[in-house]
Design goal:
The chain is mainly α. It folds into three domains: 4-55, no CATH class; 58-149, no CATH class; 182-267, no CATH class. The protein has helices at 4-10, 24-28, 36-55, 62-68, 70-79, 86-93, 99-112, 115-132, 136-142, 150-160, 166-180, 183-200, 202-209, 220-230, 235-246, 254-266. Helix 7 runs antiparallel to helix 8, helix 8 packs antiparallel against helix 9 and helix 11 packs across helix 12 (183-200). It is elongated.
């Protein structure tokens, strides 16, 4: 679109083709639709558009997924009304829906429903996490601060206790200690999965249990007792237990104090 000398002086191009008698004006304001300058630019831009479209990721909407997969349409209808039934949830997990579509559905429906329906979505997405190792993003969205009431968070934590596959157990443990942080469900989770956690994620468990501001209240003391019995080197946990005794953490309610002292004597 400019002279050959000008083009070579501006860009390090090996091959230069010159459109005779053309300049910048011919691009901005071509004389006709058949102008060579205009056709070259048009071809160049169309190639860029085509290349972009070829590499653009396919995106689904909640509507397109529920139109394409009747089981998801049924699940959406139940989630929005009575809550998804065990029968429909089992049908979703037993369907031939691609795992990518299933994962996307749970995240999209989580962003679509009300806060009271969100717990149901999180619990059902956890089933997909356990069975297919998909649905993590939906659960993480539900666990973001302020989205679920304490009762809902407790329900999700209780559902995490029931996962069976190792990747799901380790992922749920991460959510337990980073997002949920509830002593009672954590003890129930540890009681079922302590062997896996000690074998594969013991450092994170120890860091969570030894966090400075956490005392022996609620079920934290029982998590300590369980970990002391199972870890290879329980000394840090025992030292923290002794600190609790020295600092009077076991003083208070007589019944609870007796139970804690009984645990201390046994350990």
């Amino acid at each position: 679109m400019v002279t050959e000398q000008s083009a070579r002086g501006s860009w390090p191009l090996r091959s230069i083709s010159v459109v005779l008698g053309a300049n910048h004006i011919d691009i901005v304001k071509p004389e006709s639709p058949e102008s060579l300058s205009f056709l070259i630019l048009k071809k160049f831009l169309n190639e860029i558009v085509d290349e972009t479209q070829d590499h653009a990721p396919e995106t689904n909407t909640l509507e397109s997924l529920t139109v394409k997969y009747p089981t998801l349409r049924l699940a959406k209808a139940e989630i929005e009304t009575t809550g998804i039934s065990n029968a429909v949830a089992a049908s979703v997990l037993g369907s031939n829906i691609p795992l990518s579509a299933l994962s996307e559905f749970y995240l999209l429906i989580a962003k679509h429903v009300t806060s009271t329906q969100l717990c149901d979505v999180a619990v059902r997405a956890l089933e997909a996490v356990d069975k297919f190792n998909v649905g993590h993003a939906a659960v993480e969205y539900c666990l973001e601060e302020g989205r679920l009431e304490p009762e809902g968070l407790n329900s999700v934590a209780r559902r995490m206790e029931t996962v069976v596959n190792e990747p799901a157990v380790l992922w749920c443990h991460k959510q337990m200690i980073e997002n949920l942080k509830t002593d009672d469900p954590y003890y129930s989770f540890l009681r079922k999965h302590i062997e896996t956690i000690v074998l594969k994620d013991v450092d994170n468990m120890m860091a969570y249990l030894l966090y400075p501001s956490r005392g022996p209240s609620a079920c934290n003391i029982f998590s300590f007792a369980l970990a002391i019995e199972k870890v290879q080197d329980p000394k840090p946990l025992v030292m923290r237990w002794v600190e609790w005794i020295d600092n009077g953490k076991f003083d208070g309610n007589a019944r609870q104090t007796a139970k804690r002292h009984k645990l201390s004597i046994r350990l």
